[in-house]
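In the previous lecture we treated proteins in isolation. Real proteins rarely work alone, and many bind small molecules. This record shows how such a complex is specified: first the sequence, then the SMILES for nicotinamide-adenine-dinucleotide.
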Amino acid sequence: MEKNIVVLPGDGIGQEIMDASIQVLTKVAEKFNHKFNFEQYEIGGTSYEKDGEPLTDETVNACLKADAILLGAIGGPKWDSLPPHLRPEQGLLKIRKALNLYANIRPIKGFEPLLHASPLKESVIKGSDIYIVRELTGGLYFGTPRERREDGNVAVDTLLYHRNEIERIVEKGFESARIRNKHLTSVDKANVLESSRLWREIVEEKRKDYPDVKVDHMLVDSAAMKLITDPTSFDVIVTENLFGDILSDEGSVLTGSIGMLPSASLSETIGLYEPVHGSAPDIAGKGIANPLGMILSSAMMLRYSFDLNEEATAIEKAVEESLEQGIHTADLKIHHGKEVGTKEMTETVISNL
Ligand SMILES: NC(=O)c1ccc[n+]([C@@H]2O[C@H](COP(=O)([O-])OP(=O)(O)OC[C@H]3O[C@@H](n4cnc5c(N)ncnc54)[C@H](O)[C@@H]3O)[C@@H](O)[C@H]2O)c1
Ligand SMILES: CC(C)[C@H](C(=O)O)[C@@H](O)C(=O)O
Ligand SMILES: [Mg+2]
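The predicted 3D structure, ligand included, written as tokens:
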């Protein structure tokens, strides 16, 4: 098949990991007889440098026409003191909103060879397989008013959800649980937040349509604790935007490194795929970034946007095999095998394809 993929490398380590991903996809195309066309556009600080804004209409229009989108990462200290609307992060939030990417899927499943790479006990994490369904276009990230008052001494953010926004993500959570292990944990803060009480009501309404799915409600503070003390007790977690952001970084500890986690951001019609981590300014340009989160995100693209399951599995297997051979980047704290840079890690994955 032939597909047009818009690539948005972004900032920091973005270009390094995007190059890795394109090389892997090129090998997959060769092997399975597909044609992937890559078109590169700017987002984030890189876009601000070129066009004075973190996301241009040109980039949005290209994404709207694409079959799928790959994104590296955005942000960095260079742009941290810009006014809020010009910050790289606004580019990311704008593209999510413009494409209506309301469902952010963040699977957390460790690879067997990395069980001992986590600071958590092997006996605690063994067998964990978690699928976070994070709401991505609402909540605190988008609610208004958002402003400073009283000469800047008072700050307001707004956590706002409409019923339909909660309904569609909760449905996604139930549908995901139904094809996995039939257990949905809805994470909220219903003991304090009004938006969480509406969220919980809607989960209770929807569960009637999914009698085969076991439902738990859990408060987010307790969920944060359980995620690392009893990770095998979770299957699908559905939660609002900010909680999902925080819990997914925490969950990455199970896999050995934030550099391992992929994600898919989905609307009804298109998908954008990006690793969970950020632009890692502390290691940018050093050639040592872990490309596996990005590479695994491109596997998710093949599976979710193009229905190429065999090809997606081939990438995941090649990653696993590379790790079995002991090849790993410096973020994975393991004391055997061979520590390599981004390029050699990528070449190893390609050679295992
Ligand atoms: N989706 C995104 O583009 C995204 C996500 C998170 C943060 N950010 C932005 O990234 C910038 C830096 O944020 P941060 O430092 O809090 O988070 P970060 O995820 O960029 O980095 C946190 C730590 O993890 C390490 N790390 C992250 N990815 C890695 C990889 N692939 N390989 C090896 N090590 C890796 C970094 O070196 C750093 O020590 C900020 O501007 C933030 O807004 C962007
Ligand atoms: C950079 C930031 C806006 C973003 C978020 O909070 O969603 C990031 O942390 C993520 O997890 O994708
Ligand atoms: Mg985050």
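Summary for your notes: Residues 1-102+289-353 form a domain with the Isopropylmalate Dehydrogenase fold (CATH 3.40.718.10). The CA atoms of residues 76 and 341 lie 21 Å apart.
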